[in-house]
């Protein structure tokens, strides 16, 4: 049985079909009294708009894409869930893809014949593409950038303050009285901007207290994966004077580090305290549970989706919005027992 139509609602509310359409689609101003009356009938009859027909009329697909480097990194999976929730509130469907952090995969999204043109807009967490490449892209699909790749305010961009996050994590360890705080995850090359910002925060926390940074305690990793965290921790444990605390640049590195410490018979946090970043769910249930810097993933998702939809609808207040989303320290067993 077919559902109620705009004509049915108009007849019941004693208004024109155009008025009902304006209420449903928000096309034109409608008085509060009239909007309330029409909405009551919409609710009474259980009217649901035909989204496919609406999108066709507007030249839209009703879909946005979320493109991240690695779907099997829990942070991106948890962020994707929040993005889907935020988009659903606006009747948008989210398609998800990954680039593997590969430059060619990222650049392929920018071409005139790119699959990105299938969508009304794109949420992109890039690692390699430059601001110049974005400005000169062949398609004009609205884009909001996620993550910490630096674009100097040239595009819509939503991220946390990585320097401040790393400063807070390192300060937490130093304030516990730890004297040899290591860092796992530095990436001193062009695509490692997130890691570089976290290294700056790590160094600033030491400088604020007049403490030197011991270079051998800063261990780079090619990616932010568990195995690499464990390997870096093994390297640190092999030093003549191992660290008594470790700031890991994400939770996966931290979980790998904890595994290496446990395997070596080193107690966490008694002998070595460990902090991560991302507040992934796995860290709540690790042994010990993981102290972490928690970005507000829901705020990142809602801000990014709202910004993208404003760009799609032509209602964005500026051509570039740089939004910094809050973070907080969550102290658990890996630093305080």
TrEMBL record:
Which organism's genome codes for this protein?
Acrocarpospora macrocephala
Q: Key word 4Fe-4S present in the record?
A: no
Question: A Pfam family for this UniProt protein?
Answer: LacI
Which Gene Ontology molecular-function terms are recorded? Answer: DNA-binding transcription factor activity; transcription cis-regulatory region binding
Q: What is this protein called?
A: LacI family transcriptional regulator
> Which residue windows are coiled coil?
none
Q: Show where the HTH lacI-type domain sits.
A: 4-58
Q: Which UniProt keywords apply?
A: DNA-binding, Transcription, Transcription regulation
Question: Membrane-crossing residues?
Answer: none
């Amino acid at each position: 049985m077919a559902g109620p139509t705009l004509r049915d609602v108009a007849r019941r509310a004693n208004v024109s079909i155009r008025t009902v359409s304006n209420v449903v689609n928000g096309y034109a101003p409608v008085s509060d009294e009239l909007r309330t009356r029409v909405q009551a009938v919409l609710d009474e009859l259980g009217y649901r708009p035909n989204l496919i027909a609406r999108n066709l009329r507007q030249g839209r697909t009703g879909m946005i894409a979320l493109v991240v480097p690695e779907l099997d990194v829990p942070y991106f999976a948890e962020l994707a869930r929040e993005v889907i929730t935020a988009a659903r509130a606006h009747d948008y469907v989210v398609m998800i893809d990954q680039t593997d952090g590969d430059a060619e995969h990222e650049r392929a999204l920018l071409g005139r014949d790119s699959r990105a043109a299938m969508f009304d807009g794109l949420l992109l967490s890039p690692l390699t593409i430059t601001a110049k490449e974005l400005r000169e892209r062949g398609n004009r699909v609205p884009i909001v950038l996620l993550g910490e790749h630096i674009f100097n305010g040239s595009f819509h961009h939503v991220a946390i303050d990585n320097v401040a996050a790393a400063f807070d994590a390192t300060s937490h360890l130093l304030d516990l009285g730890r004297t040899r705080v290591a860092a796992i995850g530095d990436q001193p090359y062009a695509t490692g901007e997130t890691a570089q910002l976290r290294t700056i925060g790590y160094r600033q926390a030491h400088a604020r207290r007049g403490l030197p940074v011991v270079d051998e305690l800063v261990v780079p990793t090619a990616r932010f994966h568990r195995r690499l965290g464990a390997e870096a921790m093994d390297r640190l444990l092999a030093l003549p004077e191992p660290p008594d605390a470790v700031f890991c640049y994400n939770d996966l590195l931290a979980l790998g580090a904890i595994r290496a410490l446990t395997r070596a018979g080193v107690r966490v946090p008694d002998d070595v305290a460990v902090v991560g970043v991302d507040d992934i769910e796995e860290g709540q249930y690790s042994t010990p549970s993981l102290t972490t810097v928690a970005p507000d993933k829901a705020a990142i998702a809602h801000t990014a989706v709202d910004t993208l939809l404003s760009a799609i609808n032509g209602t964005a207040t500026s051509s570039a919005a740089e939004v910094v989303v809050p973070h907080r320290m969550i102290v658990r067993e890996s630093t305080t027992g």
